[in-house]
Structure formats: C-alpha cells, structure tokens
Hints:
Layout: H1 2-54, H2 63-71, E1 77-81, E2 86-90, H3 94-97, H4 100-113, E3 117-121, E4 124-130, H5 134-200, H6 205-227, E5 235-238, H7 239-250, E6 258-263, E7 270-273, H8 275-292, E8 297-305, E9 309-316, H9 344-355, E10 359-366, E11 370-378
Parallel strand pairs: 6-8
Antiparallel strand pairs: 1-2, 1-4, 3-4, 5-7, 8-9, 9-11, 10-11
Helix pairs in contact: 1-2, 1-5, 5-6, 7-8, 8-9
Amino acid sequence: xxxxxxxxxxxxxxxxxxxLVLILWNTYTFFQMYKEEERIKMNIWAETTNTLYxxxxxxxxxxxxxxxxTENKTxxxxxxxxxxxxxxxxxxxxxxxxxxxxxxxxxxKLKSQNTPMEVKIGDEIQYLYYGNSSLLTKxxxxxxxxxxxxxxxxxxxxxxxRSHRSAMQNKLWTxxxxxxxxxxxxxxxxxxxWIEIMKLENVDEQITSEIHKDVARLQTIAxxxxxxxxxxxxxxxxxxxxxxxxxxxxxxxxxKQIEYTINLPDYPIMIPLNKELHSWTIENLIKNAIDAMxxxxxxxxxxxxxxxxxxxxxxxxxxxxxxxxHSKIFEPGYTTKKRGWGLGLSLTKRIVEQFQSGKxxxxxxxxxxxxxxxxxxxxxxxx
Length: 383
C-alpha cells in the first residue's frame, strides 16, 4: 500500500515537472516568434524612415509611411549617426532623454538587445537601435516567475507532506507510550500488594519505605507516559514542595561524590502546574547536571520568590556550555554524549514553555567551571 502511494506521489511530481517544462518551452517559443515579429516591424519602420527622408517634397503618396511611423507606441528606438551621436528618441522615458549619461547607458543596453537597423539618408548612414517592447519584456521574465511559483508550491507541498508524516509518527509514538503506561500499571499494582505483605511480616520499615518510594516513582513515570499526546491539566500546586520532593527522591539515588545544596523558601508558593511534568523537568535538569559533572562536583538548587514570578536556579560545576550553543542545546537530537538521544533538554523546554507557560534558559555558563539553568513561572493570581 505504501509503495503504491509512493509511486503515485512520484508520478504526480514527474507530471508536474514535465508540465512546467512544456509551459517554459512554449513560452520560449512564443518569445522568439514575437521577437522575430518585432524585428520585421522594425525593418518596415526603417524602410519607411528611409523612404520619408529621401522623398521629394512634391510627393503626395506618403500617408501610409507616416501612418507606419506614428503607429509605433511600444518599441523604444534611438536613432544615431555612424559615430554613435544620438539624433532622436522614440518611446523612451524623458528622464533618460534629458540626461546625456543615462542616454548613453541606455544606448549600450539597446545595442546588447538587438542588431541595429541601417538607414541611408542621402550619403550618410544612420542606425536605429531598438529595444524589446513592454510585452516582450514581460514574456522574458514570465518563465522566472513561473519557476518561482513552482518552487514555492513545491516547498509548500513538501512541508505539508513532512508535517503530515511527522504527525503520523507522533501519533504512533503516542499510542506506544500510552500502551506502555497501561502495561506497566499491572505489575506496579502487584508490587504495591507485595509491599503491604512485607509490612505485615515486619520487614525492616526503612527497606519497605524505600521500595514504596521507588514504586511510587514508577507510577509517576507511567503517568507521564499516559499523558503523552494529551493536553496536561494545570492546577495550583506549591512549587516549593513539588521541587523538594523530586530533589529528595533523586539525591540519595545518584553519585555519592556530588555535594548537594538546596535553598528553598519556608513558605508555599502556588503556581499553575502539572506536578508530574514539573517533576520530570527538575529530574531532567538534575540528571543533565550530574552528567555534565561526570558524577563528581557540586549541585545547587535555589528557588527565588519575586513579585509576580518565581525562578528556579539549578547550578552545577560541570564542563560548561559555550555561548554559541546556549540555544542549540534545546534543539531535539542535539547531544554531546556518546550515548544519548538529545531529547532531555528539548523535552524540558517543551514542558516548561508550551505546557506550563513558563520560560527556561541558560542563565550563566562558563566553559570548565559550570552552568546555571533558570526556570521562570508566573505565580498563581490571588482571588
């Protein structure tokens, strides 16, 4: 089925290409025919001019010749001597006629367009240099316009096709993510049951507590997957507490050679959030910082309460990011790791800015010394 669609698509592209070539060829042929017709007209015009200049004053049969000369309203003509001294202009802009330099430049232009007509006035030879009429000039640029229109629509169709294909792939990944979340849900429920049994059998409370935290974390991850493709619901949550919970879960489960510090206000700050996605954001930034430090260094989290906004600063002592890459690191697929898909920071940016109406940026970074990321959210409006 896909091969059939591919063949049809290429047949349509080929047909469009040949149609364009046919139109261009016909336009070129018509251009050449019309150009030849104009040359014939100019031959007649030159002969008529020659007849008038050499006619006797008593000749009364010059009406047709005068009519031919006055009928030319479109073809620009410059009449010159053998030494290129300009004698007269016909159908030429007054600004050119009144400016000697422009007149000479215009004469050079006409010389490049067509071979001049020779007129014999007595013993003197004069030349009629003529240019293309306005219609011929339009025909000359018509193929260029046609090609540009064709390219425009080609790019438009290509982008539409690519967007459609990307949407289909996203739909597939969304379905897989939701199915994965559904499949994970069953064993998680069983694990929760086993934890309860372990509590009844008086297993060390610290062990069951940590296992319960890990299972709860898996439930959170499954919930994240189940929400992929759906518009997240935002509710007022205490960003201080939600950030603390994620930090307290991750810090003991990562490298022991990292020195953690966290500075949070001792009061709640209500922000419109999806708590699962916010947890994902903090987790991505913390893991990114740990990778940048290669498991050794200092990591600091600071929440700054402002008048209408709240900032979350996450600072590491890792390798740092060059300034020219401050925007590029948020692009999907960009990574400096040997193993990685380059999705962490791009996903974080999407969660923060598209789903939660916040902002994320590299607040400060110095190569070899570390990086500070800054998240900014608007505070919940008080009623």
